[in-house]
Design goal:
By secondary structure, the chain is α+β, with helices and mostly antiparallel strands. It has two domains: 185 residues, no CATH class; 175 residues, Glucose Permease (Domain IIA) (Distorted Sandwich). 49% of the residues lie in helices and 15% in strands. Strand 5 and strand 6 form a beta hairpin. It starts with a helix and ends in an 11-residue tail after the last strand. The N terminus is likely disordered.
């Protein structure tokens, strides 16, 4: 039977499972376009923030908006790269089957319908072949449509990287401009309430002679501050609800050993370089500046008897004695922004975490370090 191999091949192709197109909320194309629009919205917000009455607050929100947009762009491009690789692997695995499918479709396209229906056994065979052909044709078209949709999706994913480059340049330039504007606005801010150290020289001496962060924090608790008598918000009541000072992921838990076996009484977060760090609660700046091997450190006092230690910053904002509100910027992480092309390459290759920086966090209660995980909402900023 001349058409038996053809019919068997068609039935085989009809039974093949097809890839599911990305039509869910996790569609990387949709997510990338949404992230690009978020970056453009942040650019518009930056122009407004420069003229805002509270420029520090407006610019802080703008920096965070850029960071959120870039983080979303990073995640969506990673998903796009994974999806593209899955499509390529599927095409490779199905290469022979797809080649046969294309051959069948080309045969059907070249031959006329009467010729395809003719059968050497006569009218009965012709009738049977016509019945089989009518049943398998929809399956063939379905397979062809599936292949076309997958090829179109692959082309869209490839084009996505090209269009994303311009959006990344816009976002990276915008967040850099916003950080510069924020630093300038903080330097010009004069309306923050202040408390004053009774003896500033003692603070300087304490920092210069500190041998450990624990020893420094305990000595800092002994340095008196002028008190204006205004009762601060209840820090204890906020336990478990504090937003993270930076949007990041916990790298090491409280007292967890690092690669060198060293244990510290705090937690370590990882976050993109130069991320904005904010005050998680209304607090007074007790110390800011370089300390030991921690890089730049800022220590906040939310209530008497409590200290929040944040270490590993590249730049710190504010002055000792200033009273901050929750969400006020207190510094930037270390590191540098990648170029847009580097950002794109690192993300597409799945190793975009190579530039991550760390923020070390301690909370001290009555001179003792306690687990910060009990204080922060670790899934939120």
């Amino acid at each position: 039977m001349r058409f038996a191999p053809l019919i068997s091949l068609c039935l085989l192709l009809a039974a093949l499972p097809g890839l599911t197109l990305a039509q869910t909320n996790n569609d990387p194309v949709f997510a990338t376009r949404k992230a690009a629009e978020d970056l453009r919205s942040a650019t518009r917000a930056l122009a407004d923030a420069r003229e805002a009455r509270d420029r520090v607050k407006a610019l802080s929100q703008t920096v965070i908006a850029y960071e959120d947009g870039l983080r979303a762009m990073r995640a969506s491009l990673r998903k796009a790269a994974i999806r593209e690789q899955a499509l390529r692997l599927e095409f490779t695995a199905r290469r022979d089957q797809l080649s046969r499918l294309l051959g069948v479709l080309q045969t059907l396209q070249r031959a006329s319908t009467p010729l395809l229906l003719m059968h050497p056994s006569g009218p009965l065979g012709t009738a049977r072949s016509g019945q089989v052909l009518s049943e398998i044709t929809p399956a063939l078209h379905a397979q062809a449509e599936d292949l076309r949709a997958q090829l179109e999706e692959l082309l869209v994913l490839q084009a996505l990287q090209i269009t994303a480059l311009d959006d990344l340049k816009l976002g990276l330039k915008g967040v850099q401009d916003a950080r510069v504007a924020l630093t300038g606005a903080i330097g010009q801010r004069t309306n923050l309430p202040r408390r004053f150290v009774a003896d500033p020289q003692k603070l300087k001496t304490l920092a210069e002679n500190a041998e450990t962060l624990t020893g420094f924090a305990q000595g800092l608790a002994d340095l008196p501050f002028d008190d204006d008598g205004t009762p601060p918000p209840n820090f204890q009541a906020a336990k478990g609800t504090l937003p993270l000072p930076v949007f990041g992921t916990v790298l090491r838990a409280f007292n967890e050993a690092d690669a060198a076996g060293l244990r510290r009484p705090g937690i370590v977060l990882t976050a993109p370089p130069i991320s904005l760090v904010i005050s998680p609660f209304p607090a007074t700046i007790r110390f800011r500046g370089p300390l030991l091997d921690y890089g730049n450190v800022i220590i906040l006092e939310p209530n008497a008897g409590y200290l929040i230690v944040l270490a590993g910053l590249g730049q710190v904002y504010g002055e000792v004695g200033q009273i901050l509100s929750a969400g006020d910027p207190i510094g930037l992480l270390r590191g540098t922004d990648p170029a847009a092309q580097d950002f794109l390459v690192e993300t597409s290759q799945g190793n975009d975490d190579s530039r991550q920086q760390t923020l070390y966090i301690e909370i001290r209660q009555d001179r003792k370090a306690v687990d910060p995980a009990a204080w922060f909402a670790l899934t939120d900023r």
